[in-house]
Specification:
CATH class of the largest domain: Alpha Beta
Number of domains: 2
CATH topology of the largest domain: TIM Barrel
CATH superfamily of the largest domain: Aldolase class I
Largest sheet: 9 strands, mixed
Bound molecules: iron/sulfur cluster
Strand content: 15-25%
Radius of gyration: 21 Å
Length: 387
């Protein structure tokens, strides 16, 4: 593929560290069990890719994966220092996040990550039920999740997030409420609660196709969605996005950028970037990504130009996920495109139609999902995308 466009200073940076202790049964991210893999080689290649095309002075940096906390802290610290020499993130970034898993966040690691400049830790609890942890292929216990959380707090982390999954097979609303209440007692600053989705190619999808696991009934899933909203609100965490809750000021700025359809650069295998009007992505495999970047060449294996109407549609699709919603003017600004004078704004017309159907509501100029539209967010958002 042709050389990729470089992003303007300040653009958000995502770094994909692809290794995990084991592969979770529901996960379709590009991630591999770490045993026998060349962990240092990936860090070296990430730096080579950063040298080519990471944005200068990024506003936010997000280490995701995979399990970034699986790396030894000194290796992450050295890598972040080298990245700072290249792009000066220490001066510019208002938020630096690392995703962590309980089995690799002991007290020493938590301290060292904060010392290295990471400000925000996001810990994958997923569930507190030991049987469900096993079903999910997780390698930690609930006790390890609590310990990781306390380790992060004791190390001085003031921006601590917990990830949970609901709508698992056989999970009742009472089960879910109990788990969530227990997690909220820890007083996390942020919480992500995603419903379990069955992704093609995962172990879960195979079990589901064989009839070994059943999807949860829709009514139970809906009850769990509302339970999450109620319990989080009572705990002082507002729903700033469909699946994300935060204390005021603790929202994830990096992810808000995605929902506002801002530009971002992703480095690492499988990472996607959006720069200007172009979206492109790296291979979901280590070697085909590593070889070109070590030669100083782009690893991107696919790319697409997004025209004005496509950008506008995506801006609505993403923006309606946010609790504050968006106005038609904001959508056009974020998409950097408006219909020609005299031509209708089709996206705004779709929003008016959804308003009429009771799936959106209006607050001044802003549209947002109504109570009825909230659980149908995906379907509602897709109405803005080209068929
Ligand atoms: S730890 Fe996260 S990235 Fe790794 S396999 Fe599990 S869900 Fe996927």
């Amino acid at each position: 593929m042709d050389a990729v466009q470089s992003a303007p200073p300040g653009t958000a940076l995502y770094v994909h560290l692809p290794f995990c202790a084991a592969k979770c049964t529901y996960c379709d991210f590009f991630s591999l069990p770490a045993a026998g893999q060349d962990l240092d080689g990936v860090l070296e290649a990430l730096l080579a890719e950063a040298r080519m095309r990471a944005p200068q002075q990024p506003r936010t940096v997000f280490l995701g994966g995979g399990t970034p906390s699986l790396y030894p802290a000194p290796a992450i610290a050295r890598w972040l220092d080298a990245l700072d020499d290249l792009i000066g993130w220490r001066e510019s970034a208002t938020e630096v996040t690392a995703e962590c898993n309980p089995e690799s966040l002991d007290a020493h690691k938590a301290e060292a990550l904060l010392e290295a400049g990471i400000q925000r830790l996001s810990i994958g609890f997923q569930t507190l039920d030991p049987k469900r942890l096993e079903l999910f292929g997780r390698v930690h216990t609930p006790a390890m999740s609590f310990a990781a959380f306390q380790n992060a707090r004791s190390a001085g982390c003031e921006r601590l997030s917990v990830d949970l999954i609901y709508a698992a097979p056989d999970q009742s609303d009472e089960d879910w409420r109990r788990e969530l209440e227990t997690v909220l007692l820890l007083a996390p600053d942020h919480l992500s609660a995603y419903n379990l989705t069955i992704e093609p190619g995962t172990a879960f999808a195979r079990w589901h196709a064989r009839g070994d696991v059943q999807s949860l009934e829709e009514e139970v899933e809906l009850a769990q969605f509302h339970s999450a909203r109620d319990l989080c609100r009572q705990a002082g965490l507002h729903a700033y996005e469909i699946s994300n809750y935060a204390r005021p000021g603790q929202e994830c700025r990096h992810n808000i950028g995605y929902w506002q359809n801002a530009q971002y650069v992703g480095i690492g295998p499988s990472a996607v970037s959006k720069v200007g009007n172009r979206r492109f992505g790296n291979p979901r495999s280590i070697e085909p990504w590593k070889r070109p970047v070590l030669r100083g060449e782009s690893a991107a294996e696919w790319g697409e130009e997004l025209d004005g109407p496509a950008r506008l549609g995506e801006t609505w699709w993403l923006g309606l996920r946010l609790g504050v919603g968006l106005s038609a003017v904001e959508a056009r600004e974020r998409a950097r495109w408006s219909p020609l004078d005299g031509e209708p704004d089709r996206a705004e017309a779709t929003a008016e139609e959804l308003l009429g159907q009771g799936l959106l509501e209006r607050d001044g100029e802003r549209f947002r999902l109504s109570e009825r539209g909230l659980p149908l967010a995906d379907g509602v958002g897709r109405r803005f995308l080209a068929p």
